[in-house]
Amino acid sequence: MLLLPSAADGQGTAITHALISASTLCQVEPVGRWFEAFVKRRNRNASASFQELEDKKELSEESEDEELQLEEFPMLKTLDPKDWKNQDHYAVLGLGHVRYKATQRQIKAARKYFVTSAYEMLSDPVKRRAFNSVDPTFDNSVPSKSEAKENFFEVFSPVFERNSRWSNKKNVPKLGDMNSSFEDVDAFYSFWYNFDSWREFSYLDEEEKEKAECRDERRWIEKQNRATRAQRKKEEMNRIRTLVDNAYSCDPRIKKFKEEEKAKKEAEKKAKAEAKRKEQEAKEKQRQAELEAARLAKEKEEEEVRQQALLAKKEKDIQKKAIKRERQKLRNSCKTWNHFSDNEAERVKMMEEVEKLCDRLELASLQCLNETLTSSTKEVGKAALEKQIEEINEQIRKEKEEAEARMRQASKNAEKSTGGGGNGSKNWSEDDLQLLIKAVNLFPAGTNSRWEVIANYMNIHSSSGVKRTAKDVIGKAKSLQKLDPHQKDDINKKAFDKFKKEHGVVPQAENATPSERFEGPCTDFTPWTTEEQKLLEQALKTYPVNTPERWEKIADTVPGRTKKDCMKRYKELVEMVKAKKAAQEQVMNASRAKK
Amino acid sequence: MAAIGVHLGCTSACVAVYKDGRAGVVANDAGDRVTPAVVAYSRNEEVVGLAAKQSRIRNISNTVMKVKQILGRSSDDPQAQKYIAESKCLVIEKNGKLRYEIDTGEETKFVNPEDVARLIFSKMKETAQSALGSDANDVVITVPFDFGEKQKNALGEAAGAAGFNVLRLIHEPSAALLAYGIGQDSPTEKSNILVFKLGGTSLSISVMEVNSGIYRVLSTNTDDNIGGAHFTETLAQYLASEFQRSFKHDVRGNARAMMKLMNSAEVAKHSLSTLGSANCFLDSLYEGQDFDCNVSRARFELLCSPLFNKCIEAIRELLEQSAFTADDINKVVLCGGSSRIPKLQQLIKDLFPDVELLNSVPPDEVIPIGAAIEAGILTGKEKLLVEDSLMIECSAKDILIKGVDESGADRFTVLFPSGTPLPAQRQHTLQAPGSISSVCLELYESEGKNSAKEENKFAQVVLQDLDRKENGLRDILAVLTMKRDGSLHVTCTDQETGKCEAITIEVAS
Hints:
- Chain B: Belongs to the heat shock protein 70 family.
- Chain B: It is found in: Cytoplasm, Cytosol.
- Chain B: One of its GO terms (cellular component) is cytosol.
- Chain B: Component of ribosome-associated complex (RAC), a heterodimer composed of Hsp70/DnaK-type chaperone HSPA14 and Hsp40/DnaJ-type chaperone DNAJC2.
- The structure holds 2 protein chains of 2 kinds.
- Chain A is mainly α.
- Chain A has helices spanning 33-43, 48-72, 74-77, 89-92, 104-109, 116-123, 125-133, 152-163, 182-193, 215-250, 252-336, 344-360, 363-375, 378-420, 430-442, 450-461, 470-482, 485-502, 507-511, 520-523, 530-542, 550-557, 563-594; strands spanning 14-15, 24-27.
- Among the domains of chain A are: 35-64, no CATH class; 71-123, no CATH class; 152-250, no CATH class; 307-413, no CATH class; 446-495, no CATH class; 554-594.
- The N and C termini of chain A lie far apart (164 Å).
- Chain B has 4 domains: 2-170, ATPase, nucleotide binding domain (Nucleotidyltransferase, domain 5); 186-224 and 306-359, Nucleotidyltransferase, domain 5 (2-Layer Sandwich), CATH 3.30.420.40; 228-302, Alpha-Beta Complex (Actin, Chain A, domain 4); 394-506, Substrate Binding Domain Of DNAk, Chain A, domain 1.
- Chain B is built from 10 helices and 28 strands.
- In chain B, strands 1, 2, 3, 4, 11 and 12 form a 6-stranded mixed beta sheet that branches. In chain B, strands 15-14-13-18-19 form a 5-stranded mixed beta sheet, sandwiched between helices.
- The chains are: A mainly alpha, B alpha+beta.
- Chains A and B meet through strand 1, strand 2 and helix 1 of A and strand 12, helix 5, strand 15, helix 10 and strand 20 of B.
């Protein structure tokens, strides 16, 4: 417990001496809320108490100012400070007449009409912009198309002027008038179509970020505001867009330019068509000329050919005449020699012979003969003539013989062909042929009474209804054997076509691709030789059915054959044997029935 | 607003979160509140925490421990050299930086200490965020008082790389004070606090002054040769000698057996903090022989008594160094896992018999909790620390007033303590007998402890013509305001009459 002493007489408040040491700098730990508070205070460069004092002073000054002002501007009294959002801040600052054109300085100057919110709003460029964006005096309307039909420029010019204030770029192009150049108009519309607006709607935010109590709430509000702002911005862009669209569609200049463009295009098109037509004409002409030339050339050729033909004809005529002459000469010389005989009959015969000669001999030999006849004696001439006659006769005879031989050959051939198809009366249809081939294959040589069995098989299975005997079958089979293997193949191929035709479309065979198996030896169809067949049969006997791995062993004994091949062959054989037995039984039954 | 505080120690890391006005430590995915600061590299993964620590028996060369000791240090640093010599994981210098060489079998990796720290921080971040259920990543990280600029930067960068937003790095002792809220409730108070931190590998003791809620480190001392690991080592050595006694085998040369013994000793040490005795049992410790040994707390204390003495000696030295006696310390804060040891607490208590020993918060959680509280204070603040604000003006001397006590002897009372951050204002209600008509306030300045002398008197304030009051006391209100330059303004007011005297004392230039 400390008690203060009383002052001695004469003692007063006094300073003995100044403090010896000033403050010292100490390093402290940056920890704790008091440290934070201290740093904050120091950063504001004032102690807490001083700050409080100053604040009080300022507050009183402000309130005085406000009082003064409210008296000066009775209108301000009507404003509710709480309702600052709905106030016209320009009006409040006395700048109602200049509005958005007001400079920062003007606004600063207007500060003497201080109204806290308005000043704050408009002195901060960001906030001012926000307020400008929603300036209530601004006319947002967009003229419709119909209003602008007559006086386009009067209607749209002020609208664009009005809206150009939102542009981020300076030097907004003017709408211009009817005489504006195309470039100007184009620049105008491209500017407005790409309009870069600074208008934003943060002023209309429903909730204030500052009101939020914590960061999360602030974020939420921010998000909300952002969304509504974006919406409004979109609407604004739409507004500008419709404005420009309307203007564009009504603009008489655009119409004019379009028409000009159209006319220009038309002209171009015409010119093009003209050029095309001319080109075509030129082409046609050329073609005509070519045709003409070809025709002329052809005519010339024909003429030549005709000339040649004429020439040839003349020559022929000459030759003919010569022959005629020579013939006549021969006849005459023969006549002069009295046909080398006195006998009437002989003469007639001689004449006949001479006529024959005349007919047959060539010009040269005729000439030669005539020469000999005229230049030599009667005897020599006669001999020559007779020799000629002899030769001619020999020739004729030979020809005749040849013809005869040919005839004989022909008749022989005919006979042969008819003889081959001895039973031609019974026609063999394609089906029957196939059936026959099948049957022949089914009952190989060595079958008991093979052909009867085949015939029987044919009769049973044929659809033609023709009854065939064993003889018919043998004949046909033989004739078929004579055919070359190609024909056989053809028949076999046709058989498949037939099969398809009969059974209609087999769908899966058409388009389904079969799954492929890549096994080499399986695909080759080398026929079984008798040697192999024998080996196989031997092996089948050596390894009875119950031998383990029977087929492997069998395959081992048959060189060049796989197990699969052997099995396949065995199955074929078994089938063949079975079929044989069935057919034989039928024959037996039939013969028994006959008895 | 959620915030995170992380303490990355040499042996373990701990994370606390600040949420809804409270700070609390968060348990990791394994359910442990403290995560070993160990990273093990295997072929294709990096394991952090207990799993890494447990697998170090087999994977010792690829297990990075005590990364904090090398973080931000260069190869010519003696501390780093010592670390490299001790580390089981190969440390090499590459491109002027120290790196761990990790050989995972397929390839040899070179890992920065910063990357290791980043992995630990990532783990802490995961832990915190899973507890918070949000992706808050504002963090305050604690650093030892002796950390240099480079080391702080390295630690901060590692935390940043882990995805944290580092608000501030604070010193460990300050965090410990903050966890107990010292000086935060009554800001005009001035007190001295001793912070005793016994971590995994080092002992660090600091004397802190708390004035106006602001902390100052008056003096600090760090000893790298005492720590939890040394207790464990001592115990393990004892166990090894026990094994040798019973099985005639010396396992000290066998690294694997020693590692097993270390693990077992650590578990036993932890149990001994709460139990009277602990059992160590190891299957086939050496050549197939099992080892079973019971250690009593007394045995443990006996074994470690040299170490305990070293700790107490360190405290004494520090007090001496800063010219304090045990009575000048108002509180002692315990932190670091090893300060759980009951014997140690007992010894400290003995050293400061009249002082409150603060250990209500688990000592290994004190620091992260303080960091989390600081993070909570800092989140949402836009302007963070400017560098020069760490140096602030404080009053250089105590301002005292002379009075008399009941017996009539002169007594001095401190009105304005030294070390008060300026500007500051202090109010005191002084009392005077009602029978006197005038009051004299004599003001002295002094550096020492209440050793004001007559020549240190610099001013007096006299209130005269006061109403006399029979029996009873009058209240005199004295307001002292000191500006940043150290000039003092004193106002004295008689509460009844309202009579007032004021003087301003300038600083001698």
